[in-house]
Specification:
The chain has three helices and 41 strands. By secondary structure, the protein is mainly beta. The termini are far apart.
Amino acid sequence: MHITGAERLILIGGLLQGVLCLDFASLLPQNIKALSGSCVAIPCSFTLQSGFESFLTTSCKGIWKKGWAGVQVFDSSLTGKGLNKIQGNLTGNLQQKECTTILNDLSSFNDYFSFRIDCDNPLKYSFPEPVTINVKENPSKPTLSPATVNVMEGTSVSLICSAAAPCPSLPPTLTWTPTLSDSVEDLQETPNQVITSLLNFTASHVHHGEKISCTALYKRQAGKSDKSSKTYLTVAVLYSPKNTSVSVSPSGSVVEGSSVTLTCSSNGNPAVKNYTWYRFEGSEKDIVGSEEDLNIFNVTRLSNEQYYCEAQNVHGLQISEAISIDVTFASEIQNTSHCIRISATSQIRCFCDSYGNPAPTLVWQLAGESVNHSSNTIIREEPMGRTGLRSSLTIHQSQEEEIPSLVCLSSNFDAFDSFSFDLTPMKTYEGTVRRHLSCSTPQLVPNSSPVPLTIQELGTIRFYLYFCQNVIIDIALFCSMFCVQKYPYSCC
């Protein structure tokens, strides 16, 4: 491309004009936010037109002007208190073209500031580039990165809190609430006057919905009170069902014949929508429902069933613990209650069997009077399962004596039952007077064995008793219990 002489002159002139315009320039941020009662650092550097750098001597001073009117508020050569409208300190080295300045104890304002260099020589220049300083009564909120947390349980999360640090001598202190872990790292102040803190944690279901906040605490100059600002985010954690459990309504015990509602409760994100109810007894298991609630009608005492639920969302499932329904019913004395006579010891032994929930209380009455345990009236009790109780009463009574009336009373909550014993058709059991025997070796001993034991019984039932080595046996008690438990219809 051919350039004419005139074009060459125009191009050179334009370049020289650009050089002349750009050589005098200050490099400042566009705006700075500061806190009243504190200081602010103004990062500043400048360039000079070629030929003026030799004038940068120790005689040079830096001046800051405020507003478009250019009111002087700071002169670096004035070091006495009260000589400047705004006290400060020029920390930059003017001979190195650095003009960074710290202005102290600022009051609230929002205005432009520009820099001027003034030397005892031809170098005197007001740079036109302004910086906007906005001084507020309250500090700006810190920022969190990332701004949102929506993760799967088990994911490692890193949060960064950043806060403005306009005053180098009084940087803010950053605090996390809650900390969620012991991994908190405070980072150094960055060149752009920002201080940061890093929080690391592993997301758990317990963090879901947690508000994590970062607080920046600013101390101020001249004894002024501290100021703080806070920002927060809410953590969202995706997780499979947790804390799955079954509740019963009405709670507690349920009266026989009534209805109950079982509710499956579970915590998951997203929320649990799929439920499965299981009923099992022994090794048998059935699916009985697929809703959050399971209604059971007409509950009975005979049911030994247990129930549990399974809760499921897109991330997994969890099974509750099994529960049983506690069915209350009035105590009832069973027709297995009976009496026997043991002639060898002149004893009458009666058994009273009762079932109820809550478990019943049994009381004996002999000839209309309550009977207490003593050497002549021996009372023993033993549970029969979860809701039953057997009480035995042993009294000394010869066949010649008149047999008084005997009644067993059973009660639980507001329910009562009674059973009157007919002692006339009692069966008689005879045994040797020796009440205690010891077997030298375990053996199966029929009633015709050398062991001095005789049991007489109507009918053709022959009794076989097991004796264990070195076990002392109360013959009367053992025989009666063996008869009742093994041959209740033949013996009783």
